[in-house]
Amino acid sequence: MNKLLILVVEDDPSIRKLITTTLKAHEYRYLSAANGQSAILEASSHNPDIVLLDLGLPDMDGVEIIRKIRAWSNMPIIVISARSEDSDKIEALDAGADDYLTKPFSVEELLARLRVTQRRLAMMQNRSQVEESVFTNGSLKIDYVAGCVYLNENELHLTPIEYKLLCLLSQNIGKVLTHTYITQAIWGSSWENDIASLRVFMATLRKKIESAPDSPQYIQTHIGVGYRMLRVE
User: What global pTM score does this model have?
Assistant: First the structure.
């Protein structure tokens, strides 16, 4: 089974069925959304590896969705649209899309675009693993290989859950991670009691890394949404 999770955003049921059936046949995992609001919810909740996005949606323009996703994530976005004018392609790419496929399209071309994106993701991941075995943000340093955390060169003693939370946030620095995404990553579920536990662990983590927990420097709360690690200069 291919481990990549792909979000298909398409309001036309027949095209959506064609794409999802193709993905299933080639062992991709997938989610689907028929409008912009659902697309943003699915993207923020499940953090897919790739988004296949139609621009002509009933509730909002696809370019707006690209800009919203780019505000918190660098997940690859491949536009699949009937808009074939160069100006439309440029607008989508300038907004943050990674690729543009014009309708009508062949299944073979779609799969080829996915393979290219998949190879790029793998290269980025390998490069990240080599170059970023040590994460530094302001006075905070995480040695992923040794499993140690330092603040102002002093080693911090974190619980396993606190360490996993800190690593998850640091590996997604600048991105807002939703409660659902974090609890699924840490505990493998998103029950209400896990979200309550998340708040407790986040509070204890902040006491250890923030000089003023009530005015956090590293971890920002997005009320009702989740948390984000800020880049500290």
Answer: 0.59
